[in-house]
Specification:
single chain, 500 residues, mainly alpha, Arc Repressor Mutant, subunit A, two-stranded antiparallel sheet, 7 strands, 48% helix, rod-shaped
């Protein structure tokens, strides 16, 4: 018999049928309902008025011993026990009684197979009857079964409960209670106390210490709230229920300085966060890597945690990983971030196996970051001075001579010298005559070299000082055209030229 059963759950005589058989006792047969009779329309029981009266019938079935699941199948629960009562408690609180399997799994803490077994037990004992059986139609989703909470006729017979059918046209399962035999009132009162209590999941009693003397004699542990630690109970046991607990002296009790001899240790840390385990550290490092590294943005955090599990288990931080990636070298073009990270981190925890080595790698990475920052500052400063500052003379000697000649021509025109319209062609010819073929080739080579680096100072100085036709005769039409395109584009905020 299960732990729910008590001596009160015994077979009682049925109500009197005649004067001559007043001492006869009705023997209740085995409690089992076939599958064909587990529907509301075919059930021989009656519908329970509310969940409270239904739980009385549940506790009676649990303590009667009339139902043994192993008589009908070799698997599943061995008896109608406390777990079945806990499932029934959840059903008693539902209106209508339409529970889902996942709902009961979450509420009772059982597997799907276990929940189905206990629902079958409640149907086979006549405590549940199908109103609508759940289906799994493809495309429409699952539909939960709807049950009617029933009271089996064996319960009425055992307790001497009399029922009456008030409406002759109504089904038989709608009959109501009209009275109870005097012999069944005491048992109904005990069942009412059980129905009012909440059956909880039994606590684990595993301990390395030897059990008490009373426990070795097969004492029954109640499944309700009687099994609670209450050291104020009075008994004749030689073992104190308080164990080895010692009380503080009265002087400390009066001053309020007494503390518990066994203080509880707080699991919370000083910062309000629990210490991460191995898996937590892996996911924390993976999340920080996806935030710090641009080429890991959008990658799956669980996948990155698996890739970086070696360095995470070795105690690396995201800064240590960045220092190692600086030494290892990063790719400019990344197609699959997790795959590249797996290649770059191969053997990292072996190469930098000490905190000192990891600190040295971090220092090198930070030095490189600072050098790159200074280089960017210098580039921006040079670009600003080039476009916004004063004009500087070109470094090439040949270009300087051209600039001086252009300035001399301007001064002569301002001082009333030769007319510009008459002397432009002559000056250009004189300049070209002064430059040999070798010097022209050198000028063009220097200009092409600077043009490849994004610099157009040589060509644009000639264009601005001598004019486009003279610059084309010196550098060539193609070079002048490209230089003027780059110079015009460099003044736009949408284009940037410079070295990589």
């Amino acid at each position: 018999m299960s732990a729910v059963a008590e001596p009160a759950a015994v077979m009682l005589p049925a109500p009197r049928r005649a004067v001559d058989d007043a001492d006869a006792v009705a023997v209740v047969p085995e409690l089992f309902v076939a599958e064909a009779s587990q529907w509301l329309s075919t059930s021989s029981g009656r519908i329970a008025g509310e969940g409270y009266s239904w739980m009385q019938a549940v506790h009676w079935v649990a303590g009667s011993g009339l139902y043994q699941p192993r008589r009908h199948r070799s698997h599943g629960p061995r008896s109608f026990g406390p777990t079945t009562v806990r499932v029934a408690q959840e059903l008693a609180a539902l209106s209508p009684c339409r529970p889902g399997i996942k709902y009961l799994m979450r509420r009772v803490g059982l597997s799907e197979r276990a929940v189905q077994d206990h629902l079958r037990i409640l149907r086979e004992t006549g405590l549940l009857a199908w109103i609508v059986k759940g289906t799994r139609v493809a495309g429409d989703g699952g539909q939960a079964s709807e049950f009617a909470r029933m009271i089996p006729p064996e319960f009425d017979v055992a307790l001497g409960i009399r029922t009456v059918q008030r409406d002759e046209d109504a089904p038989a399962y709608t009959r109501a209670v009209s009275g109870i035999a005097e012999a069944g009132r005491e048992l109904v009162a005990k069942l009412a106390k059980k129905a009012a209590r909440k059956v909880r999941k039994p606590r684990s009693t595993t301990s390395s210490k030897a059990p008490a003397k009373g426990a070795e004699q097969g004492a029954v542990t109640a499944v309700s709230d009687e099994a609670r630690c209450t050291p104020m109970q009075v008994g004749t046991s030689a073992l104190s229920t308080a164990g080895t607990t010692s009380l503080p002296p009265e002087s400390k009790l009066a001053s309020g300085e007494a503390k518990s001899p066994t203080p509880k240790k707080s699991k919370a840390k000083a910062g309000g966060r629990r210490k991460l385990n191995v898996v937590g550290r892996r996911f924390q490092l993976a999340r920080e890597l996806t935030q710090e590294l641009d080429w890991l943005r959008g990658c799956s955090v669980p996948r990155i945690a698996w890739v970086a599990r070696g360095v995470a288990d070795a105690g690396w931080t995201v800064t240590d990983v960045r220092g190692w990636l600086h030494l290892r070298g990063e790719a400019a073009r990344v197609r699959r971030g997790s795959g590249l990270l797996a290649v770059l981190l191969a053997g990292a925890e072996t190469a930098l196996n000490t905190p000192a080595k990891r600190a040295d790698a971090v220092e090198q990475w930070r030095g490189a970051q600072e050098a790159a920052r200074r280089d960017r500052v210098q580039q921006v400063r040079a670009r600003t001075e080039r476009y916004d500052g004063d004009w500087h003379a070109p470094s090439s000697r040949a270009v300087q001579e051209e600039v001086e000649a252009a300035f001399a021509q301007v001064r002569d025109a301002a001082n009333g010298g030769r007319h510009q319209d008459q002397d432009d062609v002559a000056d250009d010819q004189d300049l070209e005559a002064e430059l040999s073929e070798q010097e022209l080739a050198q000028l063009r080579a220097d200009a092409w070299g600077q043009l490849m680096e994004g610099e157009t100072d040589l060509v644009m100085t000639a264009v601005n000082s001598l004019g486009p036709p003279a610059a084309e005769r010196i550098y060539g039409a193609e070079l002048v055209h490209r230089a003027r395109q780059i110079a015009s584009g460099s003044r736009s905020s949408l284009m940037t030229y410079g070295r990589r």
